[in-house]
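User: Could you walk me through two proteins back to back? I'd like the raw sequence and the structure tokens for each, with a short line separating them so I can tell where one ends and the next begins.

Assistant: Of course. Protein one, sequence then structure:
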Amino acid sequence: MAVEWQRFVLGPFETNAYLVRCAGTREAAVLDVGFEPEVVLRAIRAGGLSVRHLLLTHAHYDHVAGMRAMQEAVGAPCWLHPDDGPLLAALAQQGAAFGLPDAAAPETMQWLEDGQTLSLGAESLSVLHTPGHSPGSVTFRSGDTLWVGDLLFQGSVGRTDLPGGSFEALARSVRSRLFPLGDSIQVLPGHGPETTLGAERRSNPFVGDRVGAP
């Protein structure tokens, strides 16, 4: 058995949300619903899924704003790294800065730890703390698949000019925590198409092997 996943491209920033499920038990996790939670809820109901975890790779508005509605609908706890707690507390201010509607954080929160494992039916997701885009950014891993939020994109990386961002921390997270996992590992980002660690190690203009080469 293995996890299966479905991607939803939602909202004005075309944010990738994910529905991850254990193929054997139909237990599911929902990642990063910033907009249009009803779209993901329809898929949950159509698949007869039981949602065990609501997961946040980080606490920026476009990944969080729909999670309160998700929680009210499915009743699962929401997980976030505590270093992004201040961003979560400022969710309304984040939205206002981009002219977006007010949003409330999920009511019930659990705090993630580096190295933690979350059960999902007969499968599991492991947690890597990968700061840089935000102080509490995390990557979730199942087998050869990573959900990286806005840490790493196909041919690019996440912004580091927002509060708490650090390009040095981001580059360190990618190079020391992700690239050693192996070139064949699939990368599912918070925006844009999927990629692999090998493709980004070889050619990413921000964090790849050629950066700084003569």
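----
Protein two, same layout:
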Amino acid sequence: MFGIYLKRELSRRKKAALVIALGLALGIALVITVNSVSAGMQQAQGKVLKSLYGLGTDMTVTKAQTAPKSGSSSRPKFDFDAKSDSGKTQSSDRVMTQGGQSLKSSLVTEVAAQKGVASAVGALSLNVVKVDGSFTQGKAKSSTSNSGQGGPGGQGGGTGAPQVQGGGASFDVNSYSVAGVDVTHQDLGPLATSKITTGKTFTASQTSAKVAVLSKSYAKTNKYKVGKTLKISGTKYTVIGIATPDSSDSTTDVYLPLKQAQKLGDAKNKVTTIYVKATDSKQIATVKATIQKNISGTTVTTSADLADTVSGSLSTASNLATSVGKWLSVAVLIAAFLVAALLTSSAVSRRVREFGTLKALGWPSRKVTRQVVGESIVNGLLGGALGIALGLAAAYTVTAISPKLTAELGSTGGGGMGGPGGGGPGQAASAAKNTVDIALTAPVSVTTIALAAGLAITGGLIAGAMGGWRASRMRPADALRSVS
């Protein structure tokens, strides 16, 4: 009886049911769209962070750079012999550590022993500035002057001072980044964000081998291939592999075994960054506090700290989706619920004769209420289905368009999670901001769909509760008074 009457009443009031369902659908669709776009923002931000601090890295330990002493300078210095033969090529490399003060390698073991730390790996960040070119010596030439009173006949002549003509210098400056990698733990650290697409990676036995892995962009620009030789400060390294970053452009150009990088940078038993993986991702803040407490003078940076430095269109869109978007979706959803409740209550008011007659025939108030609530829940489910369809369509449209967002990473104030090679915020104070372009997607999770279904049922229940309360207060006498 309940089902038959429910179907008949919904068929009779198709327009009213459709209006209520569409109102709920719009609110639910907006919630799905905002949630999916917010999830896409989080994924985009995760890609940015992963490209900088390495896959599996939860935090890094660094030490802030101190101000240079009076009279000293950290700028590279180059000395060339200007008296060399004309056209003779001269070359000089200057290798400097990057990313803050150097830390003792023993600190890696000390950090790994802290409570909550699963593993810790050290890396050394270097910057190489290569200057090569040649001087060209000028030639002295004398000039003849015809002016003045000379000998007989008024003809004068003389030789002027010799002048140097031609000569000069032509030098090319090339700067690139080098990362010293612990070849025994490559799953954590600067090389963890890249895949070897040509050649091979380091082996555990190559701790002191003169081998190198190059980033794809650096190898392509400088025409390096596997098997060729790379020369840095007079030392030759054999290229064994080409690495392609998983996401975004690589911030490191050359990867060397850690011991070779330490030797190259005159930093024996030194590292600039310690990459840390926690045993529990939910306890990262606790592990950070423990490291800072037990190892003084260091800066611990987590992915959350680094996320605060992200600016650009990605940050702006994320803030809009988080604040304005969510509040707007909540406001629209509340409005949809209220409209559904008011429309249901209004529909009940127009059914005075119907409900009064049913009560006169013996229907109790609870049965009338159940009838109204049942109709409202069906309207809610219909609105939920339409809302999910609209929300999925909107999310698919965003993913298909894939608008480009730009993420700029600034400084975290003395040591960031940027990997060796100048990509991290720890170096942003002295270098240009690292900019990454990310394509936005809008993934819809099962949780979001479940939330939409729950909201649809909730909206139906709210509308049914108000309409049912109104219907339960009607008396059979109301039906008689409404008969014309």
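Residues 45 and 350 are 53 Å apart (CA to CA).

Let me know if you want the two compared in more detail.
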